[in-house]
Amino acid sequence: MSRYLSNLISKGEGLTLDFKHSITDSRKIARSLVAFANTVGGTLLIGVKDNGNFIGINTDEEYYMVEAASQLYSKPKVPFEVVKWEVNGKTILEVKVKPSRHKPHKAPDKSGNYRAYVRVNDENVVASPVLLKVWKAERNRKPLNIQLSQAENALINYLKENESITVEQFSRLGFISMVEAEQILVNLTAIGLINYQNINNEDSFSLHSGEGVE
Fold first, then answer.
1. What is the pLDDT of residues 98-151, one digit of tens each?
2. Same domain, 100 and 146
3. How does pLDDT run across 5-17, given as a tens digit for each residue?
4. Inter-residue contact 30 to 73 (CB < 8 Å)
5. Among 96, 114, 111, which Cα is nearest to 36's?
6. Are 57 and 22 spatial neighbours (Cβ–Cβ below 8 Å)?
């Protein structure tokens, strides 16, 4: 086995790595592809158990199922690259997905309804309504001459001293409604001033690294 593949597997499943011992449903694989594309990209290793052991696959069949996941069950489709590995006579597929500029990508849930998925730790979860609004704002982003309001300044000062803030916390901090707090956080995320993150399945926001807002 190559050192590259060995090091990759030793990391275990996580934000950017998922193991699949086989593919029985292209729709399920589509959820992994769109989750990687909607987050920071990632790698799907097919023919590998959750514990990292190799079982191998039927290359042609598995490849066509990944292709179906990308082209038929991902909206819009998710581009991917495949590397085939031979390990002790067993074939492993490495499927690589880059982060997308065309979010949100969607895939069918168990009921057949198309939803946007993101990667949170080692799981694919449905994107929150707030994150969908962030993506929409990013698509419609225009150059802005930023003039921060009193609530926004309070937010930035808070995030300089604290790791993150939720919509509810910002609402209380800025003495503004939940609707207004959410819209401000969405807008500031869209222009890159703050970052969105999912913490314990809750929408949270942190100060963008390197921002020197005074």
1. 999 999 999 999 999 999 999 999 999 999 999 999 999 988 876 656 678 899
2. no
3. 888 888 889 999 9
4. yes
5. 96
6. yes
Instruction: Characterise 63 by phi-psi region: left (phi > 0), alpha (psi -120 to 50), beta (else).
Output: alpha
| Domain shared by 161 and 87, yes or no | no
Token reading at 113: 């309804």
**Same domain for 105 and 151:** no
Q: pLDDT by residue (tens digit) across 66-77?
A: 999 999 999 999
Burial grade of 152 (CB within 10 A; 0-12, 13-18, 19 or more): buried
Torsion of CA 32, 34, 36, 39, to 10 degrees: -140
Looking at the structure, tell me whether residues 81 and 144 fall in a common domain: no
CB 124 within 8 A of CB 32: yes
